[in-house]
Amino acid sequence: MKQIFLTFFALFIALGGHAQSSQLLEADEDSTISVVAYFSKGDSLVYDYTHQKERIKDGGDTLTTVDVTTRFLVTVTDSTSEGYKMLLVPQEQVKGNTIYDESAVSFEDLLSMPLGVACRFSTDEMGSIQRIDNWMEIRDSLKANYKRIFDDVYTRHPELDSVLLRQRMESTFLLRCSSENGIMQIYEPLTMLFNAHGAAFSMKKERLETKNELGYPAQIDIEAFYTVPKEDTDNEGDYGVVAETTTDMTGSDLMDFVGGSVGMIVNDSIAGKLNESLKSDEFTKMKVQGVNHEIYLYFFNGWPKAMVSEKRVRVDGKDGLIESRVLEWVTSHWNVYEEEEDDSQKQGM
């Protein structure tokens, strides 16, 4: 029962996205750090984004189900007093070793940022994302790609349709990319990069009451800090935010969600049998805890430097799922400093 639950819970996380922890805090100005964008037209940074998922079996063995690193470019195409116009372009992707054959197409791969498809977005003057400007264009590209992949998968594995009904699976994925919010979840690094901009965080550890992805109460311990320069790439004024979110639920709390999620994609016979098993004491009394540990590091000018989000799902006190997202700065070009250097050289001539 535990492994069945973890399988469908992992699929929900893939299709439903996840929440971030940034929240505006009421605190004295001297004891907070504000995440503010001091960007310039022409700024460009390259990042590596690694997404991994592991499933822990009852015997303790770890199965890696997702291991993908995507390199992407973020550029400021325009800067005004009202905000920024920006561009994100996925450039290349490398897959690590997983339990799946290299030639296999994982359904979770369909939810990754499509290579070469640029995402144009706008932020306010603080750097908080306001909208994806070309989400309909991205939607059309994804839909065409989804149809091609589903055609390939179900042609090579026709027996799959007897369990995971193609029509339902395809509809579920198409629904995901049919809204601006769905596209935002597919371009996951956007949320990590800019979700905290415009917020102020206390330099004293604070405990906040919030809700998790399913709407259940959660607690966040959160704290901001200035980093101590240790390398040539560190600057005075660089800062960070660390947060840990904890949610406690029971199998009874999740019964409707798991049953509904299963019914969306599998045939009615399998869904009926699973829904019956969800009524057992083994499931309803199951204790489920979600713990999400996040670290966000920023340059002094508000550009993200490195970010880590690790989510653990524990069932009856034991780790069942571990999902991590790691975002690392690779190269940067800050146009304002290039212009200041050029002006200085001209004045010295």
Keywords:
349 residues, alpha+beta, 11-stranded antiparallel sheet, two-stranded antiparallel ribbon, 9 helices, 30% helix, globular, disordered C terminus
Which percent band covers the strand fraction?
Answer: 35-45%
> Count of DSSP helices?
9
Major sheet description:
11 strands, antiparallel
Strand order of the largest sheet: 6-5-4-3-2-13-12-11-10-9-8
How far do the termini sit from each other?
Answer: 76 Å
Give start-end ranges of low-pLDDT stretches: 11-28, 340-349
Helical/strand content category: alpha+beta
Radius of gyration: 22 Å
The percentage helix is 25-40%
Order of helices and strands, N to C?
Answer: HEEEEEEHHHHEEEEHHHEEEH
What is the tally of beta strands? 13
Shape type: globular
Averaged pLDDT: 81
Structure notes:
The model is unreliable at 11-28 and 340-349 (pLDDT under 50). The chain has an eleven-stranded antiparallel β-sheet. It has 349 residues and is of the alpha+beta class. The chain starts with a helix and ends with a helix. A hairpin with a 5-residue loop joins strand 2 and strand 3. Helix 2 (135-156) packs antiparallel against helix 3 and helix 6 (251-265) runs antiparallel to helix 7 (268-277). It is globular, with a radius of gyration of 22 Å. It has nine helices and 13 strands.
Concise summary:
By secondary structure, the chain is α+β, with helices and mostly antiparallel strands. The protein has nine helices and 13 strands.
